[in-house]
Every structure is written in structure tokens, then in C-alpha cells.
Write a structure and sequence with these properties.
This protein is α/β, with parallel strands linked by helices. The protein is built from 8 helices and 15 strands. The chain has one domain: Class I glutamine amidotransferase (GATase) domain (Rossmann fold). The protein has a 7-stranded mixed sheet with strand order 3-2-4-5-1-12-13, with helices on both faces. Strands 10-11-14-15 form a 4-stranded mixed sheet.
Length: about 230
């Protein structure tokens, strides 16, 4: 990885992205220093990715921004040098919701993923919602049953449980019971963000709550600084 700067803002969103209560998006746009948001609807490859981009476009237009959709939908796209160059040059990259397993399989160890990592480490804003937030971390929670699996690892030893206000108690219990060895789990409500600022400090913003668990026990956000 070749970078010259410091990591930018990172936002892990609990789902229902680009909704009216996602008030934190204006701050993310400002932090990017620009007006363009590069949206990768990779996780929604089989769920009308064009609609996801259109939703994002309407949302950010109201905030004074503009959206560019980059259709990285399969592995071939993720290995495309031209698409990787677009990601590397972006100042605000947003991974939307859908299937975290598909998102991981498309981006893992790809040129586009390397470009995203380098852009973030050079100060670009990176946001992921639902599947996007899950896959940005390692380990990643498997949505099929709540077990832990491999993620992309932009943030390590943190797992995101999105849609926490609607997640079934059975899945949550399984996830927490498997979270050992100091693993931190962030349960994030919809239209709510867990945000890491460039200085490494974490905060929350948005409609709902963020609850942090370490080894299955409730903890403060300070535990993320470890």
C-alpha cells in the first residue's frame, strides 16, 4: 500500500442508508472536501443496483452534493484498472447495503479494494451501510445465522451488527456468544452511524443508538480505541 497522508473519516451505518434521518451525511460530505460521492452498489448487484445509486443521488443532491455510481458488481469489475483508478482518486466512497457475502467475494484482495484502502489512508472519507459496514470490518457477521466469518479488514477486531433495532434476539445471542478474545461488536441501529474521525476518536450520530459489546458484555465506545 502506497500512501502519503492519514486516514480519513470512516462511517459505519446501521442500514436504511440515505434516509431523511441520516443527518450525518452532510458532515461526511463536508469532511471530504468536495461535492462528489462515489457510490459502489456492489452489495446490491442482484437487487437493482441502479436504484441504489438513484436513491443516493436524490439524498446527496439535497445536501449540495452529487453522486457518481461505479458499477463494481462482479469480480471482473473489481480487477478493472480503470475502475480502481476512479476509486483511488475519489474523496468520498460509499458502499451501500445488500449482501455482505457478495460484497466480500467481489472486493477481497482486488484492485478496487486496494484502491479504496489507499484512498482512505490518504484522507478520503469512506462510508459503508448495512452490508457495506459489515464487510469493511474483520471479522464480519454472517447474516444467515449470526456466526463470524472473514471480512475485508479496513477495521480489524471490530464486527458490525447492523439493523440492530430489528435484528432477531436469537441471532444477536449467537453472535455475542461467539465474540471472544476481546472482539468488539458494534450493534448499530438503522439511519445511525458509528464514526471514526481522523484523530482515531469514535463517536455516534443519527436517528438511533449504537451499543458496543466486548466479549459479549456491554462496553463504552472507549473500547474501540484499544
Amino acid at each position: 500500500m502506497t500512501t502519503n497522508g492519514h486516514p480519513g473519516v470512516l462511517a459505519l451505518v446501521g442500514g436504511a442508508e440515505w434516509g431523511d434521518q441520516c443527518t450525518f451525511d452532510s458532515g461526511l460530505l463536508e469532511a471530504s472536501g468536495g461535492t462528489e460521492v462515489l457510490v459502489l452498489p456492489t452489495a446490491a448487484a442482484y437487487e437493482h443496483p441502479d436504484r441504489a445509486v438513484a436513491t443516493a443521488a436524490r439524498h446527496f443532491e439535497d445536501l449540495g452534493g452529487r453522486v457518481r455510481g461505479l458499477m463494481v458488481l462482479g469480480r471482473t469489475d473489481a480487477e478493472d484498472p480503470e475502475m480502481a483508478a476512479v476509486v483511488r482518486a475519489a474523496r468520498f466512497v460509499y458502499l451501500g447495503g445488500g449482501s455482505p457475502l457478495h460484497l466480500r467475494s467481489v472486493l477481497k484482495d482486488s484492485k478496487v479494494w486496494q484502491a479504496l484502502e489507499e484512498a482512505w489512508h490518504d484522507g478520503a472519507v469512506v462510508a459503508g451501510s448495512s452490508a457495506g459496514a459489515m464487510a469493511l470490518c474483520d471479522p464480519m457477521i454472517d447474516p444467515r445465522g449470526g456466526a463470524l466469518t472473514l471480512g475485508l479488514g479496513l477495521i480489524e477486531q471490530v464486527a458490525v451488527l447492523p439493523h440492530a433495532n430489528t435484528w432477531s434476539p436469537e441471532k444477536a445471542h449467537r453472535t455475542f456468544s461467539l465474540a471472544a478474545g476481546g472482539l468488539r461488536i458494534a450493534a448499530i441501529d438503522e439511519q445511525t452511524a458509528l464514526i471514526r474521525d481522523p484523530d482515531g476518536a469514535w463517536r455516534t450520530d443519527g436517528l438511533g443508538n449504537v451499543r458496543l459489546f466486548v466479549d459479549g458484555q456491554a462496553a463504552d465506545l472507549d473500547a474501540l480505541d484499544v
